[in-house]
Write a structure and sequence with these properties.
Layout (H helix, E strand, L loop, with lengths): L8 E7 L11 E2 L2 E7 L2 E8 L5 E2 L4 E8 L14 E6 L2 E11 L2 H13 L1
Length: 115
């Protein structure tokens, strides 16, 4: 796993098959996707700690690093369902299994904004 990104949350994701409207190719490490919940898309970097890539139709454990972690405090809890989207197209779905460094990432992001 890449150390450049803070592991904010862990989850399980299932990618839709191409036939079901999902991706045509595998999702690789550091896949940048839209993490969707509460009717809003959020940018995230996805990493797969157990595999190098996830093919359409497969399920894998995923580590999320959010580009705006402060927006997710008190919203992401284990069991939270989400979608993975590319533009307006849903390519996967899953649920959060645990939060990790989300609070610390949010603190750092706020400090950066302040100055």
């Amino acid at each position: 796993m890449n150390k450049r990104y803070s592991p904010d949350a862990e989850g399980v994701v299932t990618y839709l098959s191409e036939r079901a409207g999902g991706r045509m190719s595998a999702a690789f490490q550091e896949y940048r996707a839209q993490f969707h919940y509460d009717d809003q898309d959020w940018d995230a970097v996805l990493q797969y700690p157990d595999v190098d890539k996830v093919e359409p139709g497969e399920t894998a454990r995923v580590i999320f690093s959010f580009l705006s972690p402060e927006q997710h405090l008190d919203k992401l809890q284990p069991g939270r369902m989400f979608l993975i989207r590319e533009g307006s197209r849903t390519v996967g779905y899953g649920k959060i299994t645990k939060t990790m460094n989300l609070a610390n990432s949010a603190r750092k992001a706020r400090k950066k904004e302040e100055g």
